[in-house]
Amino acid sequence: xxxxxxxxxxxxxxxxxxxxxxxxxxxxxxxxxxxxxxxxxxxxxxxxxxxxxxxxxxxxxxxxxxxxxxxxxxxxxxxxxxxxxxxxxxxxxxxxxxxxxxxxxxxxxxxxxxxxxxxxxxxxxxxxxxxxxxxxxxxxxxxxxxxxxxxxxxxxxxx
Length: 159
Prior knowledge:
Elements: H1 3-34, H2 37-73, H3 80-115, H4 122-151
Helix pairs in contact: 1-2, 1-4, 2-3, 3-4
């Protein structure tokens, strides 16, 4: 595969990762704010599904395609923008893994509350707050990764 084709797939994957994450976060946050239990339950189910269908494959593809492009360009991991990008990506991942667990738990709690016609317990709302606040550093880290990808310096290349 050519560098240009790989770079195109890498960018498309990043757009899908970023868009799915931001879109899912927005819809879940808005559903929670609505207080409508049926809406909350359905949205939580869809957020978990979107993570499995879109986020997980792109989370895997991003570093693989990035490392492959580095190999094609003969760039070392110690290249400053590469090292910074990888560190920020790891930070985002460290936030994302507990978010996935929280989303699955919240999906199950909301479905159970809906099935039993009960209110969401306090534990749901505590998890929702943690979920939101874990998303803040993850989102900021990913914005910085995108900025580093765009404004990187490749010696001897127009990138």
